[in-house]
Write a structure and sequence with these properties.
Blueprint: H1 11-55, H2 62-87, H3 95-112, H4 117-140, H5 146-165, E1 170-171, H6 181-184, H7 193-211, H8 213-230, H9 235-261, E2 263-264, H10 272-282, H11 294-313, H12 318-343
Antiparallel strand pairs: 1-2
Helix pairs in contact: 1-11, 2-7, 2-8, 2-9, 2-10, 2-11, 3-4, 3-5, 3-9, 4-5, 4-9, 7-8, 8-9, 10-11, 10-12, 11-12
Length: 344
Amino acid sequence: MSLQTDSGPSTKGKKDMTVAAEKQGGGVLAFVKKQAQQSLAFGTLIILVVFFSIASPAFLTWPNISGVLLATAVIGILALGTTFVIITGGIDLSIGTGMTLAAVMTGVFIVNIGLPVWLGVLGGVLTGGLMGFVNGVNIAFLRLPPFIATLAMMLIAQGLSLIISGVRPIYFSGIADDFKLIALGTLIPGLPNAVLITIVAALIAFVVLGKTILGRYTFSIGSNEEATRLSGVNTRRWKVMIYTFAGLFTGVAGVVIASRLDSAQPQLGVGYELQAIAAVIIGGTSLLGGRGSILGTVIGALIMSVVINGLRIMSIQTEWQNVVVGIVILIAVYFDTLRNRASA
């Protein structure tokens, strides 16, 4: 006859408790690291604002601040969508020219075809979603590397923008005069509507990434795609959905920039993808995937806009502005590499 006692948990129970504690500790550690990265990015933003304010008194004037926020709208919206892609461990080089194609298609729908403004705007947003869908199919089902698939889409979108527009800008003034109010109107006095659109887009991205199954699978695929697939998740389908969702942000950015300029400029867009990707990385999203936040991306976008605007306020030549932006991107990637080494 064997005696049983209830003096403590079984061996299996102890193991389960240990695993649970390790998971909880890992979660706390990851939270602390994320908060530290966001705090570092926010501190960098404050330092930049102080520096440029000292360098030029015109920097802190409301017209200039409004201009910074307006410039952040385009970069920020692109970066919000790119955050999802980079968290999966992918990349999207097509968002700059994709934004241009979405702007051109918005112009075609409203000016050339004569559709109502709201329908043309919807068409422009869906154009971005379509490009994201194609990228997702090429990456998930054709197994093309994200770099190559999106590089090809970047060139395709650039070429289609020029072909469809006839290498000429499409102007909305005189045909859809209210279109510019989408970005430049002021529902809140002194604050361009483009900034409000960015805030709404950020809130949507925040909820989707943190509160929905799409967000959970975005992190899961980025952390370990094979393990996610073996657990019964159709990772190919979810990848397509993630790229499509990110593409919708590209479409929104295209509408915003077209409204801001009151025209669709077919030769615009190249370089925006680098600024958006840099904003995402500066905000703490890892290029290796599995880690990122919407708040960090917003801070990163503000940093990029402040740097570019500050250099212009100081009358730095465009060539040197590009040099500085390139250095910022190198520094951001370097620190991301250090973070990955530390967490390995």
